[in-house]
């Protein structure tokens, strides 16, 4: 579930990553992995690399026992962060499948947040990590949920001027990341006052558990060496229920909820048609349950298929800033 930009991505990676490329000549220091590996900022995270030369986009790579490789994180700062002395709300923005932590920099997050007082944290979540601790991995630890919730969030609050509270945080994402946002908001109720899902699944069990099967197949093929997120051939049913947004409706009460799913994918693109139709049906099921429970939400069903819609991302960010505690 992703929208790819392979040519631009390859060029940026060849230049050492978008953040590093844009940072060239702006001063500051880039720590090599060997020089930075000794730096331990607590919460089980060791900084393996960092680049803070760009005035806004700061880049980090971490060593953690929760992940068998060093995941990257981009932290986008407000324009006035370095001189204002203000404390800021934080948006955790989660990428889709087959994407990574630079996805939203490629898509335009700097422009969407220009002049706006919010910190945006964009972490790796595995190419098919599903923002979960897998039932089984054949390639070492891939505990993305533990990394994000138990390590990254406390590290961000300890190292940046953030409101480390419910009304100071939002979580949003695209596709797999939209599911991750809904899951995190429900399972960790006190962490996020706003949740947004841009073309992200909201119902795991519908249509014979199609999304669970998709998570298992993609994670096993791409990230886990044949392991799975939810277990195969038999699911960990308790884990599926705990992660399933439509089974956690009361956990969304008193939150800002923003949903996006397309209605008209290109009929010749079977992947887009199947993917976005499943997302749309699941979000409609989720919305119906929210209405029945008296929980307000915003829902957008634009034309088109499974893609990041820049205008709705911009609208969402504006709504997040309006809802969270002000800088």
TrEMBL record:
What family is this protein classified in?
Answer: Belongs to the mycobacterial A85 antigen family.
Annotated Pfam families? Esterase (PF00756)
Q: Which PANTHER family match?
A: DIACYLGLYCEROL ACYLTRANSFERASE_MYCOLYLTRANSFERASE AG85A (PTHR48098:SF1), ENTEROCHELIN ESTERASE-RELATED (PTHR48098)
Instruction: Write the Enzyme Commission number(s) for this entry.
Output: 2.3.1.122, 2.3.1.20
InterPro entries recorded: AB_hydrolase_fold, Esterase-like, Mycobacterial_A85_antigen, TAT_signal
Reactions it catalyzes: 2 alpha,alpha'-trehalose 6-mycolate = alpha,alpha'-trehalose 6,6'-bismycolate + alpha,alpha-trehalose; an acyl-CoA + a 1,2-diacyl-sn-glycerol = a triacyl-sn-glycerol + CoA
Q: Which organism is it from?
A: Actinocorallia libanotica
Leader sequence range is 1-38
Could you tell me the keywords of this UniProt record? Answer: Acyltransferase, Signal, Transferase
Q: Does the keyword tRNA-binding apply?
A: no
Q: What is this protein called?
A: Acyl-CoA:diacylglycerol acyltransferase
